Description:
The protein is an alpha+beta fold. It contains 14 helices and 11 strands. The protein has helices at residues 2-5, 9-20, 27-33, 37-42, 46-62, 67-81, 90-128, 132-146, 216-285, 288-315, 318-323, 325-339, 357-378, 420-428; strands at residues 151-157, 169-172, 192-197, 202-208, 343-349, 382-389, 393-400, 432-437, 443-450, 466-467, 470-471. Strands 1, 2, 3, 4, 10 and 11 form a 6-stranded antiparallel sheet that branches. The radius of gyration is 37 Å and the shape is elongated.
Amino acid sequence: MLRAIRPLADGVDRRFRAALGRTPNDPTCRALLACAPTAAARLRSLEQFLEQVEYNGRRLAKLNLSPGGAGEALDHFDRLLGPLIADRFQPAREQLRLATLFTLNQAFYGVREAETQAFYGLYRAETEADGLEDLLRRFVGILTQTFRARAGRLILQDGARDQKLDRPLYIERGAPDEGLVADPRMQGRHASYWSYPLGETGLIQFGFAAPYPWLPRELTLLGAVAARCAEAIERSRLRDEVRRLEAEWRHAEREEQRRIGRELHDEAGQSLLLLRLKLEMLERGAPPDVRAGLAEARGIVEQTVVELRRIIAALSPAVLERLGLVPALRQLAGRFGKMHQARLRLRIAANSDGLPRQIQEVVYRVAQESLQNIAKHSKATHVNLFLHSADKSVRLIVRDNGDGMDRNSGAGKEPAFGLLGMRERAALLGGSLAVRSEPGKGVTVTLDLPRNGAPAGQNGMAGNGENSRTFD
């Protein structure tokens, strides 16, 4: 059949173009002709033809021509071809038609599936990204793969830019507009480029191995993903700003706690000590019937002094500031052992030298809060406190064998243990805090922090200039 069609191919193709009213260079007409029986007649094998159909099927999908529309056009082509071969080879023609339509359908839905996966990937990247830089890196990787580009750039631009970049641009190598390719390392390395603005946020650019003007569906997809990227970047920036403001608030809170602690120590603490001394002096010279009351009052003052010191230590752990993290944890464990019956096992495999003060304070606070929770709620008999520090991370684990908690019940929910604030502080430093528990099996609190952790927003992207993340 194909040998019979081969001499007729050029003439049938011309009649088909005329029937469609298309020029020879029309992309839709060229893709349809590449899927016609005359194209199969020009190739060496049916395998090559079906590969060609699959490629052009993707192009037709990106030209917004449905499989039904492509099938109608190919049926019209068959009606033009039939009389020229005296309607011979009907079974073979029908088999070739079915194989072609099946391949076109697969290509069409493959394109739609790729679009769906691109949007799903963008959504997943936004939910999983660790900050703006990671978000940009993920976005560029997804979109470079989606458009089958050789390289991609996503550039944040806060300043002025060439007005031509405010609209979609197709650029070929050597063209005057090649200078609009934002990354100099990308210029001249690719046969063609796409540039698409992300509103006022920046722009995204791709490089291709061959001249490849976008097709209508690709341009529509570019617009949709650009809008999604711009919104996601803005949300990420807002989240970083919220975290930065929260970090400043936490810092102000710590400073205020230190101030209150100093005033309690210098004013209320000294006054109570003076009161204790006065009561002791009065007690020595008082009549026996008054001495017992003065002794009781002195005991109350002494207990108040102990409680005040505990409050001052909770507000601002002076031992942490004076001696460092490891001695502070040892003192905390020693105080816990004196006040509670639970046996505490302390293991420290860490060197706190060089640890930022913010990291040390969060570790200390989590240990302190965990031990307080154990003392108040758990009825534990054994407690393990383990601190480990590696080159890039710090881990604190506090585990007890107490009553545990039931997350499904109204009582004993995690926020009641006062760790919600600790989790927020850990997140501000790029870390995490996990609480694992079951009724009757105790509670395990695990804190993980990067050793060089800094409040969110301090290590993010600069506000001015350009930043790019590249996948080749």
